[in-house]
Each structure stands twice: as structure tokens, then as C-alpha cells.
Amino acid sequence: MHPFLSFTGIDTSILYFFNSAISSPILDSMMQIITLGGTQIFWVLLCLTLYIFGGENEKEAAFIALTALVMGFFLSEFLKAVIARPRPYEVLSWVKHTTTVGGYSMPSGHTVAAFSGFLALYFKFGRLWLFMLFASLVGVSRVCLGLHYPSDVIAGALLGVLCALAALKVEERVKCFGLCNFERLE
């Protein structure tokens, strides 16, 4: 394992705080619901809804979000395979978790999806604070549920932001070259 990915005191201390110190059945249930905001199925359904029932802004937001999500998915899966960091509950006996998931921990795929998707919505609808709050809650939920370290979530957030910015550039190019006219797709 890479030295910078070893279990640092800060990483495990923050994990302990969110996963054990403030844990409660009500909070755990809320985190289970919040974490759904980082699932690919949530974003596919949301983007389809925006695209089918929305106007030009909604269609553009759906395009940016889906582009960012696809980029984020492949990049995060590649990085997980390269870094190969085990999930917290696999190596720390005190970590509470209600579910086991496959794959590696770094970066958090749910956080990548949440930040790339919610940032895409911000590009078209404004209210950065609201969308960043939703994305951040998804990241926190992953730590609370014992599925990721805080550093996994930070890496996922950064990757999600980068994917959203790249998807915005793709959308600008698509519009610039006239490859897709969102107004005519209604």
C-alpha cells in the first residue's frame, strides 16, 4: 500500500467520530437514505426525468450530469483498482457498518457521482450552496456508514468536481459544433 494511503491518525479519528461517536439508530437510518443520492440509478432516473419533462436548461443539465457521471464512474473504478485501498470495515474491527459492498475504497464512487451530478445542476440552476450541501451530505453518509475513510470522500469530491467541469466543457463543444440542439429535442 502507498504510504500516503496508510491509515493516518486524522483519517481514522474522523472516521471514528462519524461512524461511532455520534452514531445512533435514527442518524444511521437517515444516512442510509442520504447515501442514495450518490447512486448511479438515482442520477440516471433524475437525468431521464429532467430530459423528458424539462425545458432547454433541464436537458442541458441532464446532458452535463450524465457526461460527468460516465467519466466519474470509469475514472473512479480505474483509480480504485490502481490504489486498491481496502474499505474501513475490512481492516478496522470497531467500524460499524450495516452493509458490505464489493470493491475498493479510494475514491468514494458515491461521492464522485454526487459532486459531479449536483455540480452539473448548479451550472444550469445556480444555488451552489444548496447543491454542495446535498453532495457533501452524501460524502458524510459514506463515512457514517463505515464504507469509506474521510480521505476517500475528499478524493471522490475532487474527482467529481473535475468530471463536472470537464463535462461542462464537453457540453460547450457539443453546442459550439452544432452537434446537438437542446431546443429542438423537446
From TrEMBL:
Query: Entry's SUPFAM superfamilies?
Result: Acid phosphatase/Vanadium-dependent haloperoxidase
Task: Please indicate which superkingdom the organism of origin belongs to.
Answer: Archaea
Phosphatidic acid phosphatase type 2/haloperoxidase domain location: 61-168
Alphabetical list of InterPro entries matching this protein? PAP2/HPO, PAP2/HPO_sf
* Pfam families, per database record: PAP2 (PF01569)
| Keyword list, A-Z | Membrane, Transmembrane, Transmembrane helix
So where does this one cross the membrane? 33-54, 61-84, 104-123, 128-148, 154-170
Q: What is this protein called?
A: Predicted phosphoesterase
Organism (species): Methanothermobacter marburgensis (strain ATCC BAA-927 / DSM 2133 / JCM 14651 / NBRC 100331 / OCM 82 / Marburg)
